[in-house]
Design a protein that fits this description.
Radius of gyration of chain B: 41 Å
Strand content of chain A: 5-15%
Shape of chain A: elongated
Number of strands of chain A: 1
Structural class of chain A: mainly alpha
Number of domains of chain B: 3
Largest interface: A-B, 45 and 76 residues
Strand content of chain B: over 45%
Number of helices of chain B: 3
Distance between the termini of chain B: 31 Å
Strand order of the largest sheet of chain B: 7-8-9-10-16-15-14-13
Order of helices and strands of chain A: HE
Oligomer: heterodimer
Order of helices and strands of chain B: EEEEEEEEEEEEEEEEHHEEEEEEEH
Number of helices of chain A: 1
């Protein structure tokens, strides 16, 4: 049983380390923004409106 | 029970009065009866003249551990001197009687491939809250009012035993140990058995090492419990580290705040706001757009953050939308007048925020004409862009934010807890199967 505990400790250490690295670089997979081409980019209209209500 | 001061007995051979086979007495001087290993007849060896107690003509059972086998458990060498099979209404197990001249007798008990080492208690357990207590360890009830019957017996014993002997039994358990009470019309005896790992017994007596008792034995400790206990501590430490990291690296401030006007004709518009100073080496930026006048329409929002120094750009598109109406269920609303766009991993620099936007109006196709008496009156449909005294506005707020954000925090939290959750599920499955056999299943017994 010691091996799983040790491995879980390593797992947690890795997760905390990843979080620290992500925090340091302000990284988030949930962000909306993406890197665009150099120069002023246009946002463009991509939304087609209308309610989804029945 | 013989203890440390007892002299070591000499092995002695007697002849079986039934089959003539030579039966070795391994604990001569202590044993009262011996079961012939050839014909299974029970012999009384308490007197110099061997007496036949019960005659059996069946062939002796083939044993998992042959009589005379020696093995070491917890540093003590034991010799198998007797064996008997017992049964309680189909719940069967076998017991090997072990003997060591300095330590007396022990029972090596096997059931469903799981093993325990039992010893007779010389004291009566104390009553404890809902159970019993021995040596400071609390035991809770598991089996009650059972009848254990001897179904087969081979070897020598320190009491008179034969097939068909039965005793009333009750059992209490704690993780790793079982307390048993056996009573007949003449006496009551208590014994305690401790769970042994199969590899330990395999190493000592050569039984198969890879058997798994299932359902678990009543007192078998959950294999997942040590992991769960240690895992909870590790997980708490890790969560504390995550919270600390989020607090230290988090925080934010407003970088720019203002408004832009939405044209009433719904044309594409653009506004450039800034400068927006990003001072941390890396940061997240949130752009919040609020359109208070929005009603049955939407505003397309395209954001481009442009670094003045190198023209590097970061783009995002969102929409604020808000609809309302009435149907057979009554009034309904949908959408939100606010829209939030998040940027991540933005390097330090001076930025401009280019906002491309367009206000749109939505006309409910199911809406009845406003002029009921004249369908051709051609009255204009409601338009939120023109309905107010002033042109509608988008209130914009640009906020810098440190750290990785709540989404990443919760993602890491889930990743942290997944292995612990799996361990908890395994533990719960094990405990459920273990308790299922109990006569007190509803009460539970885990400490």
């Amino acid at each position: 049983m010691r091996t799983p505990i040790f491995l879980y400790g390593l797992w947690c250490l890795g997760i905390v380390g990843l979080f620290m690295v992500a925090s340091n670089y302000a990284w988030s997979p949930f962000a909306d923004g993406r890197a665009g081409p150099r120069g002023t980019g246009g946002g463009g209209v991509i939304f087609v409106g209308g309610p989804n209500h029945k | 029970m013989a203890e440390a001061a007892a002299p070591q007995p000499a092995a002695k051979a007697v002849s079986c009065p039934n089959c003539g086979g030579t039966v070795t007495l391994r604990a001569a001087g202590y044993s009262v009866t011996v079961a012939c290993e050839y014909c299974a007849s029970i012999l009384d060896v308490s007197q110099p003249e061997v007496q036949l107690v019960t005659r059996y003509n069946e062939r002796a059972t083939r044993l998992a551990i042959p009589l005379g086998t020696r093995g070491t458990l917890d540093g003590t060498e034991w010799e198998v001197v007797g064996w008997m099979a017992r049964d309680d209404s189909g719940y069967a197990w076998q017991e090997f009687l072990l003997f060591n001249p300095y330590h007396g007798y022990r029972w090596l008990i096997e059931q469903r491939g799981g093993w325990s080492l039992g010893e007779q208690l010389t004291r009566t357990p104390e009553g404890a809250w809902g159970g019993l207590k021995v040596d400071g360890e609390r035991y809770t009830p598991f089996f009650a009012d059972g009848t254990a019957r001897v179904t087969d017996v081979v070897g020598e014993f320190y009491w008179r035993v034969k097939r068909g002997d039965s005793v009333r039994t009750d059992d209490w358990v704690r993780p790793g140990a079982m307390l048993s009470r056996e009573a007949d019309d003449h006496e009551v005896s208590w014994s305690r058995s401790r769970y042994l790992s199969t590899p330990a017994v395999a190493g000592a007596f050569g039984v198969p090492a890879h058997t798994k008792a299932w359902p678990p034995l009543p007192h078998q400790p959950s294999p997942a419990l040590p992991f769960v206990k240690a895992g909870i501590v590790i997980a708490l430490l890790a969560v504390a580290a995550l919270i600390l990291g989020a607090v230290v690296m988090g925080g934010g401030r407003t970088l720019w705040q203002g408004s832009v006007t939405i044209a009433s004709d719904g044309r594409d518009q653009q506004a450039i706001v800034g400068p927006i100073e990003l001072t941390r080496p890396w940061q997240r930026v949130r752009v919040v757009a609020d359109v208070p006048a929005l009603s049955n329409g939407w505003v397309d929002l395209g954001y481009t953050l442009v670094d003045r120094k190198n023209q590097a750009s970061f783009t995002a598109s969102k929409a604020a939308e808000r609809y309302s109406g009435r149907d057979s269920d009554g009034d309904w609303t949908e959408g939100d007048r606010s829209a939030t766009a998040d940027f991540a991993t933005l390097p330090a620099g001076t930025y401009d925020l280019v906002v491309d936007y367009k206000g749109n109006n939505w006309i409910d196709p199911s809406r009845p004409p406003s002029n009921f008496w004249d369908l051709n009156a051609n009255e204009p449909a409601p338009d939120w862009r023109r309905s107010g005294a002033f042109a509608p506005q988008i209130d914009l707020r640009v906020v810098s934010r440190g750290g990785a954000g709540g989404g990443v925090f919760f993602l890491m939290l889930v990743l942290l807890l997944i292995p612990l959750g799996i361990g908890l599920l395994i533990h719960a499955h094990f405990e459920s199967a273990r308790r299922a056999e109990s006569d007190f299943a509803a009460q539970g017994d885990d400490d």
